[in-house]
Amino acid sequence: MPVPILRVEDLKTQFFTSRGVVQAVDGVSLHVNEGETVGVVGESGCGKTMTALSILRLVPEPGRIVSGHIWFRDRDVTKMDVEQIREFRGNDVAMIFQDPMTSLNPVTRVGIQIEEAMTAHERFSARDALGRVVPLLQRVRIPAADRRKEDYPHQFSGGMRQRAMIAMGLANEPSLLIADEPTTALDVTVQAQIVTLLKQLNRELGTAIMLITHNMALVASICTRVIVMYAGRIVEEGPVGQIFKNPQHPYTWSLLRSVPRVDETRRSRLVSITGLPPDLVRLPPGCKFHPRCAFRVDRCSEDEPSLEEVGDRQVARCWVLMRNVPQEAAKELEAVTISQEAAQELKAVSELEEAADGS
Amino acid sequence: MAVPMPSASLELQHDWDVPEQVGLWTDVWRRFRRNRLAVGGAVIVVILILDAALAGVLVQLGIIQDPIKQHVETSLAGPSAQHLLGTDYLGRDTLSRLMFGARISLSIGILVQGIYVLIGGTIGLIAGYAGGRVDNLLMRFTDIWYAFPDLLFVLVLVSVFSPSLLSIFVAIGIVNWVNLARLVRGQVLSIKEKEFVESARAVGSSQIKIVLRHLVPNALGPVLVTLTFGIPAAIFLEAALSYIGVGIQPPTPSWGVMIQDGYQAIYASPLQVAFPGIAIAITMLSFTFIGDGLRDALDPRMRR
Amino acid sequence: MANTAIGGRPAGGALPVRRLLAPSSRGAALALFVVRRVLWMVPVVFFVILITFVLMHLAPGSPWDTGGGRQLSATIVHNLNARYGLDKPAWQQFLIYLWNVVHFDYGLSYQYQGRTVSSLLLSGWPYTATIGVLAFCLIVPVGIGLGVVAALRQNSRVDYLAMGFSTFGASVPNFVVGMMLIIIFGVTLYNITGASYFLPVSGFGLDDHLILPVVTLALLPTAFIARLTRASTLDILRQDYVRTAWAKGLSERLVVLKHILKNSLIPVVTALGPTFAFLVTGSVIVENVFAIPGIGRSFVVAVLSRDYPMILATVVLFSVVVAVANLVVDVLYVFIDPRVRLS
């Protein structure tokens, strides 16, 4: 029986700006089990980072958690006082951020920064903390760790910096590590290394990992479960294999279609999602995705659907659901888009030819 | 359930489809307007400019007194119906002297910026564009120039060439162009680094035309801010010079001279120091607020 | 928690110094850098002397024109010129002057017959230095303190007060401030209360005579440092690594001291160099306003009476002081920011 270590209940985080109230996280409920790897995907601005920041109560001004509960084991994070939350951060739940170039203090040595993560909490004595720095760096596969710990962040490469951040995050052996776009700022080859590292650490240490990303491929390689977010809400959730084979929400479906898949032959074209992400101050009525949805019906613009079970441990928030969309319609969309693209290509080519003729 | 029809149309039908976009200068103006201090400063500056422009006319129309005419019988008088702000030690009307003093301060403060642009802008442009040894040499030169404490150098310059409006003007201009030079150089360097300059060269267009074309819109904002902050500094220098006695010579009214005059009789009539002092302070504050407002309005990080 | 200024926490008892001289080439590069910077001062001072000297000699008229008064007879002028070495060609005078400067001989003053410039400078120096040093001791803690508090409590009343004060200080000329203080303490309070003693408004003494001049001199640089500190700290507050520090569960004290201030004070240290320039030019004015017999005051007198040796020497002295201050600041900067490359 999987044991949830983190349970987020109907979390609402809002930003009070001069333009209006931005509903960054709008009623999100999720859970993470012991040792699990969960992916949270969505476009920029969908609320995934804000959810993570809310869990650690690091929401920046002018935002704050408006309602909801965040249960870590049996304690409510939203009700913790300053000292309790300080103990909680970096200790029970740790978070690493997107850009390793800017996420480390440039004027302090790396070893010191890892050490202070430990000495800030009760878990390890100052002496033990000192002794743990090199083994931690070694565990994240940083070569010559005992020399490297004296270096400053600018002397590390991007990949090494991210590893150092991971080491920092795991220093206190947290139950959950939240990784916010850990590979986005890195080269592709380095990305693969970091991903492998995270997988190994999850296996070796049993630390649960919440991976936040917009990259579906990343989710496929590490996570067992995936949560899809859009406009501050969860629109689909389920085991990774199922979601990839049978996405029920049109947004998830579109996301998957927009990922180049090396294994598929060149039959299917890439489909891009039309339109722009919604303005979180002025959200459309009904389903928040409907303006960009190729499969919408009238009801979509009137009522917002709720999360319904659509499969074994899979839920989705949609009136239509992909399984109800006739194959021809789905293919037609691809065809329409394909023919649009083809038409444009043709137009471009003919213009070039005209120009060549003219001169 | 009805078969959903795919919609291939990209029409934007609802107001929640499109986020707002505005042009750069509209945005800058809007943000500037919201800064009440900056707007206040701007209002005061406008008043001062009007005052400087119309002072002569107003004297001829008899609305204000002649600033040079001495009424020795009423020297160091306090405010009265005839002399709204009193008189100085020679019986000259303080209010009109203040109003004429604005001319000197404003004209020096603002026009000197032209010299800064000329000297500093040119040097910065050459240094940034040429790069290499020329750049190195010019930057060393500016470093040396920067090593001079400005007031001292201006004092020396003005003492060497007898004090007059022109010599003050030139002296202040020569001393403080370094900041602008560095700014322009930085802008040129950052433009040079951008890829489109490389690609323009590859295509064959003249590099300098590209640089110039992109320099003005990019550099205009920061340059404007620097110049705006340079105005109170220049006003201060002129006032300090006049206060010391090597600036504007009497009987021409300059706020600095008025302070020196008032200082001599500070115990007898402190108001004669206070009035010009307040005038300088308000003027400098106004320009500083405008500069702050401009800088905040131009800050790209604060854009929506 | 040990501080991590230079060497970080020593491992197993080693001294931080060891790290400086450690195999890393940074130690050697550092020494080289310092030497190069010191040597750079030489051409700077040289050019200052050169330019000032040239200006002196471009001046129309001779230093013996007392301006609208008696004309000295030709023989007297000739003798004076010979005595002060003014009959030699300009370039020779320049070389002689350079030679003398290196030997700390600044010549004879024109206006005070028989007195050497050096002696005049030496007699005025203690006053200027006292006020300058005291002002500096006021500027650093007050300026930085105000800026940090304003940034940490952004948009609060403290912030507005602090920034209002610093805008005022940066915009009102120091002679105006000085005179306002004189008016308040010398005139108004007297008129209101009838007591004749509040704070002395002129002259020098190692007592409360110092208060008004020091405050007046310190006002502008304090305002400048406060604004700079606030801006820098606000900038740092937005940085990702501050968020990382919070996410690690560090206490507020640690985050502010080790992560925020350690970074935000770097540009402030750099600004301490120009602060010296402010102190120097400010002293010229403040000594005038408060009748303090320091170098600033004698400089003004020299300018007004065209005492060229005095002017030249004072300019050189002040420029050297500013150059040394900038040098110290530059070297300090290399120590506190490990990202700086020394090549």
Fold and architecture overview:
The complex is a heterotrimer of chains A (359), B (304) and C (343). Chain A has 359 residues and is of the alpha/beta class. Chain A has helices spanning 48-55, 82-88, 110-119, 126-139, 145-148, 158-170, 188-205, 216-222, 240-245, 250-257, 327-358, and strands spanning 4-17, 20-33, 37-41, 63-72, 75-76, 93-96, 176-180, 208-213, 225-230, 233-239, 308-311, 314-316. Chain A has an 8-stranded mixed sheet, sandwiched between helices. The longest helix of chain A has 32 residues, at 327-358. Chain B has one domain: MetI-like (MetI-like fold, Orthogonal Bundle). In chain B, 70% of the residues lie in helices and 0% in strands. In chain B, helix 3 (94-130) runs parallel beside helix 11 (271-298) and helix 9 (207-244) runs parallel beside helix 10 (255-264). With 343 residues, chain C is mostly helical. In chain C, helix 2 runs antiparallel to helix 12, helix 5 (117-152) packs parallel to helix 12 (308-336) and helix 10 packs across helix 11. The chains are: A alpha/beta (359), B mainly alpha (304), C mainly alpha (343). Chains in contact: A-B, A-C, B-C. The B-C interface holds B 143-144, 147-153, 155-157, 159-162, 232, 236, 239-240, 243-246, 259, 262-263, 266-267, 270, 273-274, 277, 280-281, 284-285, 288-289, 292 and C 43-44, 47-48, 51-52, 55-56, 58-60, 167-168, 170-173, 175-176, 179-180, 182-183, 186-188, 277, 280-281, 284-285, 288-289, 299-300, 303-304, 306, 311, 314-315, 318-319, 322-323, 326.
